[in-house]
Amino acid sequence: MNRAIAAAHTGHAKLIEADAYLFDIDGTLFNSRDGVHYQAFCRTLAEVYGVEPSLDGLPVHGNTDIGILRAAVARAGKSGSFERLLPRALELLQSEFAAGAEQFLPQLCPFIGELIQHLHDRGKILGVASGNLTTVGWAAGLRAYFSFGAFCDGCEARADIVRAAIAQARKLAASAGLAATICLVGDTPADIAAARANAIPVIAV
After folding, report:
1. Mean of the per-residue pLDDT values for the chain?
2. How many CB atoms lie within 10 A of CB 111?
3. With b meaning 16 or more CB within 10 Å and e meaning fewer, what string describes 7-33?
4. What is the Cα–Cα distance from 43 to 55, expressed in whole angstroms?
5. 137, pLDDT greater than 90
6. Which domain holds residue 82?
7. Are residues 126 and 196 in the same domain?
8. Per residue in 70-86, pLDDT tens?
9. Can you tell me the distance from the alpha carbon of 81 to that of 74, in angstroms, rounded to the nearest whole number?
């Protein structure tokens, strides 16, 4: 975890100052090793696309849920059916995840709970910019602290997800009379690239 984040709530370090902070989820807010999300992917790949139910060897870290599905289908040589079957795939992926939600055991990353509380207490606008689908993204129990979220349901590319989150943050900031300075917090090179594509600062954790 980035030292600035670890110390921000104690006053020993200072975060990039902003009116709004956008958080990635996996690897930034929490980690999960229970396999619920993975199994939802596997069943979706097998039932909707008829491909090997495995994500082994695929570019998962920093990818979006749609991007992961696309990579798995492309590896099986069935890209021609990807877009046509995508609505059904997304519906099944989310329903499968929801069905296993009781076994979903996310673990907050170190200091994240304190950081979110610290920013919340300072009146900062907090949002999520995640490559997950909405059902997955709000499953960690932190919904009460975030005013909005942008997920991959509507846009596959991470830069577009961040752009959608920025638009929501600016709208909220304007209603509060703020200047709408925005910072992204993420854990992968894809997060850094998305922040740069949208010309906002990023805290890499």
Report:
1. 90
2. 19
3. ebbeeeeebeebbbbbbbbbebbbebe
4. 11
5. no
6. 36-103
7. yes
8. 999 999 999 999 999 99
9. 10
What would you report as the CA-atom Rg of the chain, rounded to the nearest whole angstrom? Answer: 17
Share of the chain above pLDDT 70, in %: 93
Could you give the count of Cα atoms lying within 13 Å of 65 in the half-sphere of its Cβ? 34
| Cα 24 to Cα 83, 84, 93, 158, 194, distances in angstroms | 26, 28, 20, 10, 11
**14 and 88 share one domain:** no
Q: Which amino acid is at 20?
A: A
- Number of domains the chain is built from: 2
Residue 9 sits in the same domain as residue 52: no
CA distance 164 to 125: 15
pLDDT of residue 14: 65
Whole-number Å distance between alpha carbons of 82 and 164? 24
What is the H or E stretch that residue 127 is in? Answer: strand 125-129
Q: pLDDT tens digit string along 12-58?
A: 346 799 999 999 999 999 888 889 999 999 999 999 999 999 999 99
Do 78 and 175 have their domain in common? no
Q: Do both 27 and 124 map to the same domain?
A: yes
Cα 13 to Cα 1, 19, 120, distances in angstroms: 13, 18, 17
Domain boundary (53, 85, 103) is at: 103
Same domain, 61 and 139: no
